[in-house]
Design goal:
Number of strands: 0
Strand content: under 5%
Mean pLDDT: 97
Distance between the termini: 16 Å
Shape: elongated
Largest sheet: none
Number of helices: 2
């Protein structure tokens, strides 16, 4: 059962990574709530930073979700051998 245990360990690690991401996003949300009224220049910078970070994170999450779905399909194939 080493293969199963290794897979379960990997799942646990990935779940912890997701928890870390959620924690970081809560921190970002909290910091956004603390912002004072911003100047137009600050708003523009914030919009740029948000677009860049959001796009990067969305791409990574989309890729991760696709990889997890592929992994599931491969596990189902192993079960059906």
């Amino acid at each position: 059962m080493p293969g199963t245990q290794n897979a379960l360990s990997e799942v646990a690690y990935l779940r912890r990574s997701c928890d870390y991401l959620l924690s970081a996003l809560r921190d970002v949300e909290r910091e956004l709530g603390r912002l004072p009224d911003l100047t137009d220049a600050q708003e523009t910078i914030l919009d740029m930073e948000t677009s860049l970070a959001g796009e990067d994170i969305r791409k990574d999450l989309d890729h991760a979700a696709s990889s997890a779905e592929s992994w599931l399909a491969r596990i189902e194939n192993v079960r059906n051998l």
